[in-house]
Design a protein that fits this description.
This protein is of the alpha+beta class. Helix content is 26%, strand content 30%. Strands 13-14-18-17-16-15 form a 6-stranded antiparallel β-sheet, with no helix packed on it. Helix 10 packs parallel to helix 13. The longest helix is centred in the first third of the chain and has 17 residues. Bound molecules: zinc ion. The site of zinc ion has 8 residues, from loops.
Length: 481
């Protein structure tokens, strides 16, 4: 199923609006369920393990007569705080210097394998490392070119499988400490994903560090397909790309320079840019499917339909940066994320992401397929977007997606503010009600003025997008397994 998604590239740029109205109508019942479940979870939040959830569910169903529609949610939380990773301490030293490797170049670099983490270029990753050889390796990296590789791995049926595509991580701040009593060192690191690479071969160093010979993957920029077909005489009718909003006026003058007539030309360069398609075998909509500006616009519009906090103006303006931003922030499983990472063209990456965005309707538990959230509840509490990587005190990195509401989850234990990834919020562990898988955390505000007062952080490794094939009309929602 996961592989089936990638060939679904036929996103018609002309008919996007009509399809989603059906989705909205169909979600009414689900919204009702969301509200019921949230009320249930509020009731249970002070209990260690809700025992009599069924009885309370019945009560909640009776009391939940008026479902609330998705409304704007005020946010007073400082969205720059999550990416500061202040729980790691404020004593990290900035590391300067940057190494950019040439496309297609073969380089050798140390590789860290992280379970369930597929680092995307532009994504911030915090690390807290305890393994002595790894700490020594990272210290060496800080002193040299600041760059190491991050590659995802999985443990399926006991087999250790490493992805063949990874991303270089560039350290931008670090702090190492050595315990005087034990002599053991630890290091806290903040790094950013930079360049994609393909692993050519790997070997173990004498200290057990994985060393990879990798090929830096190029970013291929597609040419303007209609450039050759567009007659130069037509170009004067097109506004220059940087003057979209300008009304251009063309005038006809006689030999004395007297203006005979003046015509305001179209301000919409999209129309003009594709008229040259009339001279080719294919109609304009074919070219629009591969136009970076239009694919970007459509992607932003679709995401904005999920939730109004996903504002187009807060997303990157560059197609390459947006393609990585979307890849980072979609609730994809590792396989899909690696597949998107392996695509060399931003337009193709965006088109794949767009087909997933259009089909994704709900988020499901990876273990049992239970619905845990609706796509409309995904919201952005960080300047990096709704999904970010955070490290726990044990050094385990979780990619966590923020949602307003969640359902079919049980809370475990008492809220705690210790090592909270979102300053001002206490976390409580949440697990799937049906299969008891760890799903993430519920975050509750410790201050009255802090909004939202509560939200959920779902760990990406535990959720899969529930997809709906738009072409099959009333087909059932199904999780990607
Ligand atoms: Zn489950």
């Amino acid at each position: 199923m996961a592989e089936d998604l990638l060939p679904l590239l036929g996103v018609n740029m002309d008919n996007g609006d009509g399809d989603d109205e059906d989705d909205d109508d169909g979600d009414d019942d689900e919204n009702l369920m969301d509200d019921i479940e949230i009320e249930l979870n509020i009731n249970n939040e002070d209990e260690d393990i809700p025992e009599n959830s069924q009885a309370k569910k019945q009560e909640s169903k009776k009391s939940a007569k008026k479902p609330e529609r998705q409304q704007s949610i005020p946010i007073t939380f400082d969205s720059s705080l999550p990416m500061s990773h202040s729980y790691l301490g404020n004593d990290l030293e900035e590391v300067r210097g940057r190494t950019i490797h040439d496309d297609e170049s073969l380089i050798t670099l140390p590789i860290i394998q992280l379970p369930g983490i597929v680092l995307i270029p532009g994504q911030t990753i915090p690390l807290h490392l305890f393994h002595q050889h790894t700490v020594a390796m990272i210290k060496g990296v800080v002193d040299t070119d600041k760059t190491f590789g991050v590659v995802a791995y999985s443990h399926d049926d006991g087999a250790h499988t490493m992805a063949t595509i990874g991303t270089t991580a560039e350290i931008f701040s670090a702090r190492d400490e050595t315990d005087d009593d034990t002599g053991l060192s630890t290091i806290r690191v903040k790094a950013k994903g930079r360049q994609r690479f393909q692993i050519v071969e790997t070997e173990r160093s004498p200290t057990g560090i994985l060393i990879g010979k990798v090929r830096i993957l190029p970013e291929k920029i597609l040419p303007d397909c209609l450039e050759g077909a567009r007659p130069l005489s037509h170009c004067k009718f097109c506004c220059p790309p940087d003057q979209d909003s300008m009304v251009r006026t063309c005038t006809a003058v006689d030999r004395q320079g007297k203006v005979l007539t003046s015509v305001a030309m179209s301000r919409n360069r999209q129309i003009n840019r594709f008229t040259a398609a009339c001279y080719t075998w294919w109609p304009p909509w074919v070219y629009k499917m591969y136009d970076a500006d239009l694919v970007m616009q459509r992607t932003k519009e679709e995401l904005h339909k999920w939730n109004e906090t996903l504002r187009p103006e807060n997303m990157p303006q560059d197609p390459i940066e947006l393609s990585y931003w979307v890849t980072q922030n979609l609730p994809l499983d590792d396989g899909l994320r690696v597949n998107l990472l392996s695509i060399d063209s931003a337009v193709q990456r965006l088109r794949c992401a767009l087909s997933i965005i259009e089909k994704c309707s709900i988020l499901c538990c990876k273990g049992c397929g239970s619905q845990v959230a609706n796509k409309k509840d995904v919201f952005s509490l960080s300047i990096e977007g709704p999904l970010g990587a955070y490290v726990n005190p044990g050094g385990y990195v979780h990619e966590t997606m923020t949602v307003h509401k969640a359902q079919n989850l049980n809370l475990i234990g008492r809220p705690s503010t210790e090592h909270s990834w979102f300053p001002g919020y206490a976390w409580t562990i949440a697990q799937c009600r049906r299969c008891n898988s760890h799903m993430g955390w519920k975050f509750t505000s410790t201050m009255k003025e802090l909004k939202p007062q509560k939200f959920w952080g779902l760990t990406r490794s535990s959720v899969v997008p529930g997809l709906h094939d738009l072409d099959e009309g009333d087909a059932e929602w199904m999780p990607v397994m």
